[in-house]
Amino acid sequence: MIERRHLTGFVAALCIGLGSLTAPAQAQPRQLVIFAAASLKTALDDVAASWSMASNRPAPKISYAASSALAKQLEQGAPADLFLPADLDWMDYVAGKGLIRADSRVTLLANRIALIAPSDSTAAVTLAPGVDLTAALGQGRLAMANIESVPAGKYGKAALETLNGWDKVKHKVAQADNVRAALLLVARAEAPLGIVYTTDAAADPKVRVLATFPEASHPPILYPVAVTKDSTHPDAQGFLTHLRGAASRAAFEKHGFSVLNKPANAT
Which of 162, 91, 93 is nearest to 128 (CA)? Predict the structure, then answer.
């Protein structure tokens, strides 16, 4: 017969063992959540990786989509710590709803838009007043991001309107949810021409730039960034500081962006 003292010790040890199996795992730090314009993916992935390595923090979770879609998600209560759209209008929109910390807002980057074709295309186009893309399009369509709400689409439409070329092609436009989707249509040769940011074109070897739109043909292409009003993440401000640092500048410039890094009220 097992002695009582030995039995008591055995039960105690068993309880301790079971307790260690059922104890909750140590909580991991919550990932920083960033809402960013689709056109930023290649560059911002690099920036996020460098921040994670330098800070020894978990890599941010970045949701890439059209700036319009992300702004609406913020308005509907989607949790995010930073917002980085591809134009000032959508940042102004969320600011008007009280969804960002106004004192954190910075105009970080600038970009250009270009007319692209599949890499093996022989098309040639000059983006001058009176431009007519119909011959280069043939029976195909012009791939663009949504022209009413997505910044890249709005910039592209404005540029063609300035060059008196919009009316000739407005019925031949294939509108995509975001600029990277428009890029993909051209990369797959599903569209003979497209309008995307020059940084998008540089990120995909399956397309080539036919011409870059004159800067005066459309509003300035600017990327603001701000911490959201409801963010409680301790790393939100630190990541914003990293975005404005030398390492991030080098990464953004490597991918073709111009770094401005100006507070919202800078002149």
Answer: 162
Q: Angle at CA 171, nearest 5°, toward 165 and 175?
A: 95
* pLDDT of 235 over the 70 cut: yes
CATH number of the domain that residue 64 is part of:
3.40.190.10
State mean pLDDT over 78-101: 96
State residue 216's pLDDT score.
96
Closest CA to 81 of 237, 223, 222, 224: 237
Strand runs labelled E in 160-257: 173-176, 193-197, 207-212, 221-227
Q: Are strands 113-118 and 106-111 parallel, antiparallel or unpaired?
A: unpaired
Q: Which two tokens stand for residue 216?
A: 């005066």
Q: Report yes or no on 25 lying in a domain.
A: no
CB 39 within 8 A of CB 197: yes
Q: What domain range is 98 assigned to?
A: 33-110+222-263
Count the Cβ atoms, other than its own, within 10 Å of residue 98: 10
Does the pLDDT value for residue 61 go beyond 70? yes
What is residue 73's DSSP assignment?
A: H
Q: Indicate the pLDDT class of residue 20, thresholds 50, 70 and 90.
A: very low
Residue 202 forms part of a structural domain: yes
At residue 261, what is the residue type? N
What phi and psi, each to the nearest 5 degrees, are found at residue 110?
Answer: -135, 160
Which is more confidently placed, 76 or 17? Answer: 76
Please name the residues in contact with 236: beta carbons below 8 A apart, sequence gap of 6 or more. 32, 81, 82, 227, 228
Give bridge partners of residue 142 from the DSSP assignment.
Answer: 173, 193
**Under 8 Å between Cβ of 117 and 210:** yes
CB of 112 closer than 8 Å to CB of 213: yes
How confident is the model over 58-82, as a mean pLDDT?
A: 95
**Do 100 and 170 form a contact (C-beta atoms < 8 A)?**
no
